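User: Second chain of the day. Same drill as before.
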Amino acid sequence: MRYALLNPGRVAPYVRRGARDAWLRLKHPGHVDYYRAVMASDTARDPEAAVGSRSHERWLALGAMQYDYLVGHGLAPAHRLLDIGCGNLRAGWRFIDYLDSGNYYGIDISPDILISAKRTMTHYHLQDKLPHLTLTHDLKLDFLPDGHFDVVHAHSVFSHSPLDVIDECFAHVGRVLRPGGFFDFTFDRTEGAEHQVLREDFYYRTDTLLALARKRGLTARFMEDWETRRHGQSKIRVSADPLPE
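Assistant: Same format as last time:
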C-alpha cells in the first residue's frame, strides 16, 4: 500500500496485469505452462518488450552487454554455447554471428518467442550459421548430449522461475557441460525476504542459490564484475569443476 501511494501511476497497470495473470494461472496451474501463456500474450503485443526491453535501443544494449561479458570471459568461436531462454535472440544473434557454424543452441519454453527468434535470425542474415532453436518444456536437458557445451547461459530466466525449476536445472546442467565448462545465469537479488510478484518475478538471496547449486554437486561463485553493468540483475557462475577465483 505504501508503494502504491508513492507510485500511483503504476497501480492501474499492475491491476490489469494482475487480473490477466490470475486468469492465466487458473487456466495453467503448472508454472511452465503458465509462463508460456504469459509469453504468448506479451509476444503478441511486442516481442522485444516480452523479453524485458522497453525500447529497441535497450534491446540492442542488453544483448551487447551479455555478448561482451561472455567474450570477455573467454568465449571463443570454436566453443559450443547453450542459451537457455534464448527469447527472440536479443543476445543470441550476436552469439550466432560470432560462433562457428552450428555452435549456437538456443532453447525456450515459448513457441511464440521462438518464431520471433527466427525472424531476428533472418533479419541479420544468419541462416548460413545453422543455429539450433528448440522448444522445450522443462530444464532437464535430457535431449542434449553429455559433455557437449563449453558455456551454458541463462539471462533473465531464473528471475522468472520458482526455486524448484532452478533446482531442476542445477540437477542436470553439469551433465551437458564439457570438462572446464561453466554455466552463467542472472537472477533478481534481494537482501531481505525472498518473494515473488504475480508469479512472474522472483527475488532470491545470493546464498540461497549458491547453496542450492552446491547441493547438486556444483561449484558456484557470485560474479562481482557483472555488478558494474547497468542491468539490475546479478550473476552467478556454476561448474561441475572447480572455478578459478
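Residues 11-27 form the longest helix (17 residues).

User: Great, on to the next one.
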